[in-house]
Amino acid sequence: MTITLQDVSTITALSIEGKPLCMNTDFEGWRQQMEALIGMSPLEPGVEDGGKKDRVPAGAPFTWIAANFAHCPQDANDEVIETYARVYMWYVISRTIFADGIGKNAP
To answer: Where exactly are the structural domains of the chain?
Structure first.
């Protein structure tokens, strides 16, 4: 049995109409896509002593999500509230339905 979009909508009581939260994480441009969807992305990895960048999977660490989106500002406008809601849904869905292998990143 396969979970469908309708099933997720029924379980979460969320509408399946409107702007999607989706991006392709298979290529280098995932940070730009994330910035377009939520306004920011994790920093680029640093360069080690050997001159190579640390290997970081596409996606954001849950600690980064919590540090940047844990509390929506009290005086937030509708656009900011929508962004925080989008990030919260991404967080919940990636932690439960589509968790990664190590449980530390939101794909």
So the answer is: 18-40+57-106
| pLDDT per residue as tens, the chain (107 positions) | 788 888 888 887 778 888 776 656 566 777 888 888 889 988 776 655 565 555 555 678 888 888 999 999 999 999 999 999 989 988 888 777 766 666 666 65
Residues 3 and 78: their CA atoms lie apart, in Å, by 31
Q: Which of 28, 24, 21 is nearest to 83 (CA)?
A: 21
Indicate the DSSP class of residue 57. Answer: -
For residue 5, give Cα distances in angstroms to 2, 11, 78, 100.
Answer: 10, 10, 26, 19
